[in-house]
Amino acid sequence: MKTENMTDQSIMLDFEIDFTTNTQAILINLAKCKDLPSLFEAVLIEAQRLTNADGGTLYVISGEDEQAKLKFSVMSNQSLGIRLNAYAGDDIKIDHLNLYEDGEPNTHNVATFVALNKQLVNIKNVYLTDKFDFSGTKKFDRNHGYRSESFMTVPLLDHNNEIIAVLQLINAKDDLTDEIIAFSSDNEALVEAMAGYTATALENQILLHSHKELLDAFIQSLAKITDVRSSHTSAHCQRLPVLTELIAQAACEDKTGYFQDFSLNQDQWYELRVAAWMHDCGKLATPDSIINKATKLNTLLDGIDSIKARFAALISNAVNQLYKQAIKDGKLDSLESNITQIKSKYADDYEFLALINKGGEFMSDDKKLRVKNIAKYQYIDTNDVLCDMLSSDEITNLCITRGTINEEERKIINRHIDITIDVLEALPFPKNLRKVPEYAGGHHERMDGKGYPKGLTRDQLSIPARIMGVADIFEALTAKERPYKKPMPLSEAFSILQRMKNDGHIDPDVFDLFLRSGKWLGYAKEHMLEFQLDVSLDEVENYI
After folding, report:
1. What angle do CA 126, 158, 108 make, to 5 degrees?
2. Is the CB of residue 214 less than 8 Å from the CB of residue 268?
3. Which of 27-33's residues contact partners 24+ apart within 8 Å by CB, and which partners?
4. What is the domain extent for residue 465?
5. Are 103 and 177 within one domain?
6. Which of 259, 313, 357, 402 is close enough to 379 for a disulfide, judged by CB 3.0 to 4.6 Å?
7. Structure pTM?
8. 233 in the same domain as 196
């Protein structure tokens, strides 16, 4: 406070000393903020501390031109014990403020006025002024038993002198008596000076946040494109991050078991999330003819249609031969029975090929032998050439043991993980994302070292990579849109994963944690069909 003996020069000197001290403290506190939510909150709290204000609000600009509005982002009130941060997920039930209404500048509200005119407004008592509409403030007071009096509203401008936020402080308090007083001219000078470097910090963080949102959107778009390319893996790249985070969350919550020392900070969570979204980006280089191979004989078209035509020719040739032989032998009485018999035999053979072509059933050696015997049938084509029923390629494909992909096609598909690693390792990830290639590239490795692409063992794989491996297989087993198989119930999926655990394929601790944590149940209810949910939490011990 000023005294009669203080000169203007000494007052200014004291102000500069106080401002320098406060500035250093504020800069240190703001520098500690590593993300946008904490920075927004720190800006408001530091401004309150600087002016000894009881409350305050930080509005952030959103939209452009006539669509621009001020969004309630952070709210703080010491007397009421309120501290809300919309960027941290808090629900602030207050409408945003439009800068324009019906195409005209909204100068009725003090915050929008400050944003539009880029000038500080200091009001001693809102109940004694009619310059602005404070009906919303008065309603807040009535609802909370509060009395808002002094208001200081300050614009935060970027380097282009464009508004990025509005800082509003409420009820300055006397340092000694805690009496509500007006914001002083010293307060104005301090906050305006603070606003300059605060706006720079905010602008930088908003820019970083925008870049992060752009990166996230781009990554998720790539995942969606990967999913859209094939009905086989529809939504796989979008579901795997959900599963991966659920299992990782269970690992972080495990305080007594194998994962008791495992934890993820904010940057590590983001690193894992990026890796999960990008784990199959290499599939964008896989040929459509392979990634969309819905049946064993599928290329551009399903080859089973060609085989059906061959059987028709085979039956026609056989019936003609039966007619000729019956006329020659004079045995027309048995002709109709013989024709029915030959048609039934060939129809049965065709139905067998049509069924195994779908790749939904395991191909036993007996079934493979039957394919090879059918391949020896001969028919006369449209050029009167005698041809074998099946080509060598068709035999190879129809004898695929599981699924619809042959060995050569499997090698091509498996290359997607090599391409994924190559692509990710070529990207200039910042330090906090350096493990993305390792996490994403390890989800096809096995614990016994028999996986691909590098043949890494369990000890060589990080926990996040092992988590992603279990999540990848569980999603594939339980997916409900795969055209070549029926949706698999939980009991069957857990049984398969249990065998894979015992065979050294997947990490035993990750799988057991996944089951015991019950994280799969919420996922199943959201992403699976009702009939697939045939296991309860009490029954999971049967699969461990």
Report:
1. 25
2. no
3. 27/197, 30/198, 30/201, 33/201, 33/205
4. 229-281+433-543
5. yes
6. 313
7. 0.64
8. no
